[in-house]
Specification:
Number of helices of chain B: 4
Distance between the termini of chain B: 70 Å
Number of domains of chain A: 1
CATH class of chain A: Alpha Beta
Strand order of the largest sheet of chain A: 1-2-3
Strand order of the largest sheet of chain B: 1-2-5-4-3
Oligomer: heterodimer
CATH topology of chain A: Rossmann fold
Strand content of chain A: 5-15%
Distance between the termini of chain A: 49 Å
Number of domains of chain B: 1
Largest sheet of chain B: 5 strands, mixed
Radius of gyration of chain A: 18 Å
Helix content of chain B: 10-25%
Strand content of chain B: 15-25%
Order of helices and strands of chain B: HEEHEEEEHEH
Structural class of chain A: mainly alpha
Number of helices of chain A: 6
Radius of gyration of chain B: 21 Å
């Protein structure tokens, strides 16, 4: 019995693939960007507050800088004036980066079917998960986040997007 | 403190500025004075500085696009021009409001600026310029305030297309996806 195992207890050995280990790490510590556009942001705040406690899923901390975050929750309608800002924030995020379109407005324009609002944020950035609702309840957003985590769990190393190699 | 008695704004205008006041309307106690674009500043300065009127607070400036001039209502009848700019004034001394309105030509929609009287008119006039395309002569910073700088057209004009996009259902999803842009990674 070596020093390490006697200190830590006999933990045994876990074998896994690199894919699974990396995806587990990415899942467990996702940092969303502090980014609310409209009323959906209220529900997003509620999701992160004590009642729904998003930190159960490893994302308790919103970062105010896109360079420190790997998830952007587009919470609200995106106006045409805001669109270049969102694209810039998305481009500043380090890969791997994920986008959740929260609510009807971010997903498809919602009730704002007019000249001023982008009809779905997927015209600006690639969206991983769409969350329906106007606004979605915190349970729905959590469901969307769990769906995103399921998606990340299915990622493979060979499909990784390498920055600069595109 | 001595406060002079409140004057009737219409009587005061007809007495002191008979050439400026083109028309007037009263509807449920709301008074609207109609003046020519060139005389707007004169009329508003008169309403602001005259004892007994003192409309010293600019509530709002708004613009209207009547588009179809023949469609009037009430005693308004047909409109003389396509656009109208309204100045909503409030007298903090007497607690009453008045509206000064001017009709603006469609071909050269230019109104003198109110920023010399009230600095608050700055952004209000910029918004009207942005949304209606009415220029304010003498304004120091006549740029768009709501829409992006490179926007074309004036969204609140009645002939501006709404930008309506067909709602996507399962039966037309293929047609829409042919032309709907999607972002790249």
């Amino acid at each position: 019995m070596g020093v390490v195992s006697s200190k830590l207890g006999d933990l045994g050995v876990v074998t896994t693939t690199l894919d699974t280990a990396v995806n587990w790490a990415r899942n467990g510590a996702m940092w969303p960007l502090l980014f609310g556009l409209a009323c959906c942001a209220i529900e997003m705040m509620s999701t992160q507050a004590s009642n729904y406690d998003l930190s159960r899923f490893g994302m308790e901390l919103n970062r105010a800088s896109p360079r420190q975050s790997d998830l952007i929750i587009v919470a609200g309608r995106v106006t045409r004036k805001m669109a270049p800002v969102i694209r810039q924030l998305y481009d500043q995020m380090a890969a791997p980066r994920y986008v959740i379109a929260m609510g009807d407005c971010a997903s498809c324009g919602g009730v704002y079917n007019n000249y001023a609002v982008v009809q779905g944020v997927d015209e600006i950035v690639p969206v991983d998960v769409y969350v329906a609702g106007c606004p979605p309840r915190p349970e729905q957003l959590i469901h969307g986040i769990l769906m995103l985590q399921e998606k990340i769990k299915g990622e493979r190393l060979k499909d990784w997007v390498v920055e600069g190699a595109r | 403190m001595y406060i002079p008695d409140a004057l009737d704004p219409i009587a005061a205008m007809t007495e002191n500025l008979p050439d400026v006041l083109l028309d007037r309307h009263e509807f449920r106690g709301e008074i609207t004075l109609i003046v020519a674009p060139a005389n707007v500043v004169t009329a508003v300065r008169f309403l602001e500085t005259t004892k007994g009127l003192v409309y010293n607070y600019l509530s709002d400036i708004s613009a209207v696009d009547y588009f179809d001039l023949k469609l009037g209502y009430g005693d308004y009848g047909a409109r003389p021009e396509r656009f109208a700019v309204s100045y909503h004034l409030f007298s903090m001394l007497y607690g009453r409001r008045i509206r000064v309105k001017t009709y603006v030509n469609e071909d050269s929609p230019i109104v003198p600026t109110m920023t010399g009287v009230w600095a608050a008119a700055n952004w209000l006039e910029r918004e009207i310029f942005d949304m209606m395309g009415i220029r304010f002569e003498g304004h120091q910073n006549m740029r768009r305030v709501l829409m992006p700088e490179d926007w074309e057209g004036n969204p609140h004009r009645r002939d501006y297309p709404l930008g309506y996009e067909t709602v996507m259902f399962s039966f037309n999803v293929d047609d829409i996806n042919k032309h709907k842009p999607y972002a790249e990674e």
